[in-house]
Specification:
The chain is of the alpha+beta class. It has four helices and six strands. Helix 1 (about 1-10) packs antiparallel against helix 2.
C-alpha cells in the first residue's frame, strides 16, 4: 500500500492541474478507508526555491496558500471544495453539489465555495 500511496501523492501532491487529479486520489484512497479532503483556490502566488545551503524546497507561499488551507479545513472527508474564484474562472463548468459561505480566519468578508460532485 505504501508504494501505491506514494505514487498518488507524487501526482496530486503538486499543484493539481485538473479536477481529475484530485478525484483520482480521492477514489484511490477511499478504498483504504482514508478520509481525504481537498480544497482549491486560485490567485497570484509567490513560488520558487526556498531554503539555504543544501536544503532547498520548491514551494508556493502567500495568502492563496493560507486561504486554500482554511477552505480545506471546512471540507468534509471525501469532498473536494473549490473557491468561488475557481468556479467562476472555469465558467461554472464544474459539476457541484452545493454552494457554501464561510467566514475564514484572516478574511474581512465571507467567502463562497462550492463542493464538487465526486
Amino acid at each position: 500500500m505504501g508504494g501505491y500511496l506514494s505514487k498518488i501523492f507524487q501526482v496530486t501532491g503538486k499543484f493539481c492541474r485538473r479536477e481529475s487529479h484530485a478525484k483520482t486520489a480521492q477514489k484511490a484512497l477511499s478504498s483504504y478507508q482514508v478520509g481525504v479532503r481537498c480544497a482549491v483556490h486560485c490567485v497570484e502566488v509567490v513560488e520558487g526555491l526556498f531554503g539555504g545551503g543544501n536544503v532547498r524546497t520548491y514551494i508556493g507561499i502567500g495568502d492563496v496558500v493560507n486561504t486554500a488551507k482554511r477552505l480545506e479545513g471546512t471540507t468534509l472527508a471525501g469532498d473536494i471544495t473549490v473557491s468561488d474564484i475557481v468556479y467562476q474562472r472555469l465558467n461554472q463548468q464544474l459539476e457541484v453539489k452545493h454552494c457554501r459561505t464561510h467566514q475564514l480566519k484572516g478574511k474581512n468578508t465571507a467567502m463562497k465555495s462550492w463542493v464538487l460532485v465526486a
